[in-house]
Amino acid sequence: MAVKIDKKIKGYAVVTAEEKAREAAPPVVAVTVDRAAAQAEAPKDNIIQMHERIERPEVLIGSTYKIKSPMVEHAMYVTINDIVLNAGTEHELRRPFEVFINSSRWTTSSGSSA
Fold first, then answer.
1. Which of 4, 5, 19, 31 has its CA 20 to 30 A from that of 52?
2. 47 within some domain
């Protein structure tokens, strides 16, 4: 199935069974907050930096997406590998760690690109 992407991919999330159950639960009543106070406390940029250096583990969890564009004949494959932070705790987070982009374009038997 071909999917046309009209906008830039700004993020993604993996929904677990627990998150689906939470979404089905009744909504929590929100507390009103002064907008000016909230903006003053908000970070000025959208960059999140980790406070510790993380080495790449031997194994990562990931997904590969096949993207076919009407502009080109060959499909592109985007692989996003995630790292699990604080595994087994209530603060467990799954975050993107690396991204690979590849094409289905193969070389011919003569060695030149098709």
1. 19
2. no
